[in-house]
Amino acid sequence: MRYIDLRSDTVTLPTAEMREAMARAEVGDDVYLEDPTVNRLQERSAELFGKEAALFVPTGTMGNQICVNLHTRPGQEVVIEERSHMFNLEVAALAALNGVMPRTLRGANGILDWAAIEPAIRPRAYSVAQTGLIAIENTHNLAGGTVTPLDQMEEICDGAHASGIPVHLDGARVFNAAVFLRRNVAALARPFDSVMFCLSKGLGAPVGSVIAGSRAFVDRALRVRKMFGGGMRQAGVIAAAGLVALETMTGRLEEDHANARFLAKGLMAIPGIGIDPENVQTNILRFDLGAAMTTSELSRRLKERGVLAVGIDERQMRLVTHKDISRGDCETALAKLREVTSEG
User: Both 297 and 324 in a single domain?
Assistant: First the structure.
């Protein structure tokens, strides 16, 4: 059975062009900085994001935590939104790897602004932890793929820098944010001290993420990547797919966004399902089941009918569109959802 897999955009299969590039990749030992394909990926990433340098890492979690390590000292706090990936889905790495505490704030639809952040910055007093970093997630995964506007990101960075605090962009799906805002990723990354983006989510590469920043920052990041176990050898085999992703996959993301909006419109018509289509901005959508059924039960019944989906909790479901989901797949998924929910 072929499943319609709406669990995440990480489930995509590499394209034929990616597979060919991987097979033909020119490689070397990247720990010696001698893998030409990795070097090309890093140079291209820095160019696209308007940063001096970039570094290929195995995962987005590692990329985020390398940046936290470089920006902070043990005993400091990191200001983040309370539903952020760094707080909820990185296995307490802020504390375990870097010795810092999260200072969580609630943002409307996951979006923070400077007015909310400024009061959370700790005073310069010896009895309290100091604010070492502010981290913004754009798009925001658990809030449903919502996008922080560029002017709000710039205001946050300006305020933070005036206070002597660096700002990191968890841009796992920043290309989706750029498409929604109709700006290039360099504009979104410009005010931030560091940025991480994933090649293996909306862009469809099989593995890998990239961090970018100043040349001095990336030089320091090399050491931390090695310490965290991210020193890869002939990594050009996977970097080759990342290069193809950057050059061929960013232009099609609006198709995923349109499919998510199509799903949202269809979900609105199903009794018992709660969804606000205005919050469906990119390729992720959330909907509420109310008391009719738990998400685990819905997931089980959908799987029996060839559709894969997962819950955020027992009442909220998440669906994610991606390159391997067609409009026809969305129509079928909606039909199966109507069938399951009508059964009660």
Answer: yes
Give the closest residue to 257 by CA, choosing from 4, 2, 9. 9
What is the predicted pLDDT for the residue at 245? 98
Burial 170-189 (b: 16+ CB within 10 A, else e): bbbbbbbbbbbbeebbebbb
The low-confidence residues of the chain, meaning pLDDT below 50, are none
* CA distance linking residue 266 with residue 76, whole number of Å: 46
Residue 65: its pLDDT value, please? 98
| Count of C-beta atoms within a 10 Å radius of residue 288 | 16
- Residue whose structure tokens are 């027992």: 314
Instruction: Please report how many Cα atoms fall inside a 13 Å half-sphere around the Cα of residue 16, on the Cβ side.
Output: 0
pLDDT digits (tens, 9 = 90+) for 18-40: 999 999 999 999 999 999 999 99
Q: Which structural domain range is residue 265 located in?
A: 4-10+252-343
- Are residues 170 and 43 located together in one domain of the fold? yes
- Gap between the Cα atoms of 28 and 39, Å rounded: 10
Same domain for 170 and 141: yes
